[in-house]
């Protein structure tokens, strides 16, 4: 199963988290069914980890107008969004 980490700068951490938690239907449309992990720091940066069942569908929906609208609603600064598909692994 693929793992994706997305980082971004947001306008307001509390508003971002409140809005983020309303997007369950959008995440399900991206084939995300496992819990989503996320964190924020005092500099208003957030990191979110997803495990989509279908990476292609996840990426297609990520680039959709619906996702852009959700991010704007949450106060995500679009120009700061970075997407990492975790495609390597190190076993210790």
Describe the structure.
The chain has 92 residues and is an alpha+beta fold. It has a single domain (3-86), classed as Alpha-Beta Plaits (2-Layer Sandwich), CATH 3.30.70. It is 35% helix and 24% strand. It contains four helices and four strands. The protein has helices spanning 13-20, 24-29, 55-62, 65-74; strands at residues 3-9, 37-40, 45-50, 82-86. A four-stranded antiparallel β-sheet has the order 2-3-1-4, with no helix packed on it. Helix 1 packs antiparallel against helix 4 (65-74). The mean pLDDT is 97.
Distance between the termini: 20 Å
Instruction: Count the E strands.
Output: 4
Stated plainly, the CATH topology is called Alpha-Beta Plaits
Spatial ordering of strands, largest sheet: 2-3-1-4
Structural class: alpha+beta
Please indicate the percent range of residues in DSSP E strands (runs of 2 or more).
15-25%
Order of helices and strands: EHHEEHHE
The helix count comes to: 4
Overall mean pLDDT stands at 97
In short:
The chain is α+β, with helices and mostly antiparallel strands and 92 residues long. Helices cover 35% and strands 24% of the residues. Strands 2-3-1-4 form a four-stranded antiparallel beta sheet, with no helix packed on it.
Key features of this structure:
92 residues, alpha+beta, Alpha-Beta Plaits, 4 helices, 4 strands, 35% helix
Present the secondary structure layout.
Elements lengths: L2 E7 L3 H8 L3 H6 L7 E4 L4 E6 L4 H8 L2 H10 L7 E5 L6
Antiparallel strand pairs: 1-3, 1-4, 2-3
Helix pairs in contact: 1-4
